[in-house]
Specification:
Helices cover about 40% and strands about 20% of the residues. It is α/β, with parallel strands linked by helices and about 650 residues long. A six-stranded parallel sheet has the order 3-2-1-11-12-7, sandwiched between helices. Strands 16, 17, 18, 19, 22 and 25 form a six-stranded antiparallel sheet that branches. It has a four-stranded antiparallel sheet with strand order 5-4-6-8, with helices on one face. Bound molecules: 5'-O-[(L-methionyl)-sulphamoyl]adenosine (MSP).
């Protein structure tokens, strides 16, 4: 019998910046679902890739002094680029599409022409607002306080000859799709879409641009490039071969598929994308699932706000599987969640080191200690002591399956951990160490207890495989579970392991993390990465708490700026020559060029700490640090040098 086909996609990523933990969340979640569908025996095609056109990329490439193609090539294929990250995170995508791939470009031209020829794309003039970072057009009424409703940044006026897609024509069909089918989930997103976009009236969408050139050219009207979202959304079918000869999978039952996307792009995936497919006469996706955001300090992470969390650093410090697990375990899929390093460490310690890690290491250690690593076949089952664990473990697969089929991996994990916790309790209830005191009388009972623990662990291990594939392989090797004991079928069977199974106590799968030490190491890794990126030594980090005596050792002085200039080849550093009252000029370097032009600071009266050890920055020695006030303004970091009354003489001590 032919296997059921399951096609699942992540949004394709803008390679305008390095990916952060929010992007990683989205891809790890889709990977987990893809692995689950493979586990249950479906024929899975998992697609991810990069969305490489548009004005933002063109601008960024210009800033970097390279061509747009060079720019995207570096971020996609360069060291620590998109492909590297997915490899590191053990993402099992079957295909990777780049919207600059020739076959995709050809398909986009075909799609645009087809929609034009069937009367759904027409020429007009575009007047409106455009948010460059989001590559989104907005009408006046959609703006929030005059800014982009998605990212809150200022929008630009835009007016140009353009092609339009008759989105309005599909309003009723889209409303029907949203309201009367289970196409879009979670259901709360349906109200959002209907209230914000359908009820006010769907307007036709501007789908070509003439003011920049980094995009797919409209082949019948050179000078126009296809709007980046038409280009990007189509990837889900061009990657299967729609409109090109690269792949022949579109007709083979892969489409329609499931689109997993973040909440801010649900609008594109649940309104524009189905309308495009309707226009092309193709089936709409089976599902669009809009997951929530990982927040940091209450806001969305973004490189421009400077509050991104680097997945490389976390994976390198805590392990890929621990990071994958944390993302799926902690944040209900579909809702927003607040990321913190503390939460990550707590989750590793509680669930992985304590609950799962202990269960595996205690069980394998006891089989080693009491039976030399191989269980004897003789058993003594004690119904009243064993039934609860056995029936919980046997009932687990159905609960897990239900949660996974409803896009609730966090609930599936909840169920698995109930069984793991029950198994740990079973150890305490049955006290194998007490049974071991009289092996002659209790040997068969002890063997039975340990076998039950191995079986419960095995079932949990199977169901955890989509979340932590590598670690579960190690776990299976330790508990002696061969391939046939790792299958979906065997996750609903008791006693799949051989009666005389051999067990190997191996490495500790999930070592406990020392919170303070790990936080310190993380901070150092983050600083080192920043330094490597900018080539600038960073200002020393002040400790959170200092005792009074230590504080008193800090020598803060009033200083006057005699001269100030930008440091060559540095975007950030300013070099100050200061009068500190000693009669000898003091030189301090400060990474504040973003906020101040050097000439505006000459003559100002500032405050500096002057007894820090000297440090070199870009070849210049800095003797101290200028004091500034730092805060966030519209999500951006703002900085103000601390300036004091000019009447205070240079060298005055602050106390
Ligand atoms: N290129 C578009 C998608 C085109 S799909 C036809 C895009 N790219 S993106 O790089 O900005 O975002 C990729 C995915 O990462 C989106 O699903 C987005 O929601 C997700 N995330 C980006 N930041 C996120 C968080 N902080 N938290 C969770 N997901 C986030 O949009």
């Amino acid at each position: 019998m032919e296997k059921k086909k399951f096609y699942i996609t992540t949004p394709i990523y803008y390679p305008s910046d390095k990916l952060h933990i929010g992007h990683t969340y989205c891809t790890v979640a889709t990977d987990t679902l893809a692995r689950y569908h493979r586990l249950i025996g479906e024929d899975v095609m998992f697609l991810t890739g990069t969305d490489e056109h548009g004005q933002k990329i063109e601008e960024k490439a210009k800033e970097a002094g390279v061509t747009p193609q060079e720019f995207v090539d570096r971020i996609v294929d360069g060291p620590r680029g998109v492909r590297d990250l997915w490899k590191l995170m053990n993402i099992s995508n079957d295909r990777f599409i780049r919207t600059t791939d020739d076959y995709h470009v050809k398909s986009i031209q075909y799609i645009f022409r087809k929609m034009h020829d069937n009367g759904d794309i027409y020429k007009g003039t575009y007047k409106g607002k455009y948010c460059t970072p989001c590559e989104s057009f907005w009408t006046e009424s959609q703006l929030k306080d005059g800014c982009c409703p998605d990212c809150g940044r200022p929008v630009k006026d835009a007016e140009e000859e353009a092609y339009f897609f008759r989105l309005s024509k599909y309003a009723d069909k889209i409303r029907d799709l949203l309201e009367n089918t289970d196409f879009l989930e979670p259901r709360s997103r349906v109200n959002e879409m209907v209230r914000n976009f359908i009820d006010p009236g769907l307007e036709d969408l501007c789908v070509s641009r003439t003011s920049f050139s980094w995009g797919v050219p409209v082949d019948f009207d050179p000078g126009h490039v296809v709007y980046v979202w038409i280009d990007a959304l189509s990837n889900y079918i061009t990657a299967l071969g729609y409109g090109n000869e690269q792949y022949g999978d579109y007709e083979k039952g892969w489409w329609p598929g499931v689109n997993i996307v973040g909440k801010e792009i649900v609008r594109f995936h649940s309104i524009i994308w189905p309308a495009m497919l309707m226009s092309l006469g193709e089936p709409v996706p089976k599902k669009c699932f809009g997951h929530g955001w990982l927040l940091l300090d209450g806001g969305k992470m973004s490189k421009s706000k400077g509050n991104v969390v680097d997945p490389y650093i976390l994976a390198e410090q805590f392990g890929v599987d621990a990071l994958r697990f944390f993302l799926m375990r902690t944040f209900p899929f579909g809702s927003d969640g607040s990321f913190s390093n503390e939460l990550l460490i707590q989750t590793i310690n509680t669930d992985l080191a304590n609950d799962l890690g202990n269960l595996v290491s205690r069980t394998t250690a006891m089989v080693g200690k009491y039976f030399g690593g191989k269980l004897p076949a003789a058993r003594r089952y004690e119904k009243e002591k064993d039934d609860e664990l056995v029936s919980m473990a046997l009932g687990l697969r159905a609960k897990y399956e239900d949660a996974m089929n409803h896009y609730a991996p966090h609930k599936a994990l909840d169920e698995v951990f109930k069984v793991i916790q029950r198994a740990n309790k079973y150890i305490d209830e049955n006290m194998p160490w007490a049974l071991a005191k009289d092996m002659e009388a209790n040997g068969p009972r002890l063997a039975s207890v340990l076998y039950h623990l191995l079986e419960a662990t095995r079932i949990c291990g199977i169901l955890l495989t989509p979340f932590m594939p590598e670690s579960m392989d190690k776990l299976f090797a330790q508990i002696g579970a061969e391939e046939n004991c790792r299958t979906w079928l065997s996750a609903a069977m008791w006693a799949a392991l051989d009666g005389d199974v051999s067990v190997t106590k191996g490495e500790n799968l999930f070592p406990r993390v020392d919170m303070d030490k790990a936080l310190g190491e993380l901070e150092a890794a983050v600083q080192a990465a920043k330094q490597a990126e900018s080539g600038v030594e960073l200002e020393p980090q002040l400790e959170e708490k200092v005792d009074f005596d230590t504080f008193c050792k800090s020598d803060f002085r009033v200083v006057k700026v005699k001269a100030c200039e930008a440091v060559k080849k540095s975007e950030k550093l300013l070099k100050f020559t200061l009068d500190d009252g000693t009669g000898v000029d003091r030189q301090i370097l400060s990474g504040i060029h973003k906020w101040y032009e050097p000439e505006t600071l000459v003559g100002k009266t500032l405050v500096a700490i002057v007894n820090l050890p000297p440090r070199k920055m870009m070849g210049h020695e800095s003797n101290g640090m200028l004091i500034s006030a730092v805060h966030k303004e519209k999500g951006e970091e703002a900085l103000h040098l601390l300036m004091v009354d000019d009447a205070i003489p240079a060298g005055a001590k602050l106390c």
